[in-house]
Amino acid sequence: MTKIDQLIRLMGELDRGYDRTKTAVSAGSRTVLQPDQPTHSRLEMLFAEDEGDGLPDEPELSIPTGEPLATVLPPDRTQGHVRGYVPNPRTKRSVSYASTLERICAYSQIANAQIHSVEDQPANLYYQKETGNEHYTRFDYRSVFGRNRYTVAIAVRPSHLIDKKDLRDTISRINSGHLGDFADEAIILTENELTYPLGWNSKAILRSLRGRNKEHCEWLTDRLKDVNGWIEIRHLTKGLPTAFGLNAVWCLIFDGLLEPFRRDVLLPNMPFVSVNRAKLEEVR
Q1: Which one of 58-67, 132-141, 213-222 scores highest in mean pLDDT?
Q2: By the 8 A CB rule, do 155 and 189 touch?
Q3: How far are the Cα atoms of 91, 104, 252 from residue 95, in angstroms, in the given order?
Q4: In what order do the strands lie in the sheet with 141-145?
Q5: Is the Cβ–Cβ distance between 74 and 96 less than 8 Å?
Q6: Residue 108: what pLDDT?
Q7: In this structure, are residues 44 and 59 in contact, taking their beta carbons and an 8 Å threshold?
Q8: Separation between Cα atoms, residue 149 and residue 120, nearest integer Å
Q9: Which of 118, 193, 106, 125 is nearest to 158 (CA)?
């Protein structure tokens, strides 16, 4: 969060009568998250058949985060470009990115509960130009939605390249009959859709999923039955330590139980949420 964002948040809190500068700072031990599961790796139970082998009856095996599914991995990081990997806390597998826009796209896809899987840099897709010549393109991500397995191929590009490289025509031709079993639909995402607030909020959800605590989430879910309309987060989580409460809020936003007032704004700058009553009835 930039200094400008912090200043906007402070001004908004002062307008609502809350001055964090006057909050007493505890000199005791710090409050840390208490996740139920390992934050990156996963544990698998191994049942020992030989009781005399000296191993416990139910030993645990730690499985590290899996490698990306990409057919082409991003090049090495350079001074002028962003390269890296995002661990998916749901599948325990890394997702690669090769630009700032791709990183935001990866965050937003993984942090969407409706998306079951995200594949980075899938295999080349071949199509024909108007001239009849065969060309190929590689999409940045392929995401699978919901139980119907609706698959979307995503090309992440800066907006100034859309017209320069005639990408709209390319996507239109691909959608007209060249997708086959590759995907159900192909789209282009630019910085107009992949905004900084979207990336920041999505990354916060991913951090919270890694630190998810079932007890805290159940406590907050039970609290929602008494909430009507929009409520400020600090009032909603009163009764839990700040770190535990905020982490649970992000987890319930992912679950769909809580809805932010503005999804296109950083949540700390407008910390109001409402309860999705239909979703709440499903889990109660």
Answers
A1: 213-222
A2: yes
A3: 10, 12, 23
A4: 115-120, 141-145, 150-156, 185-189
A5: yes
A6: 95
A7: no
A8: 17
A9: 193
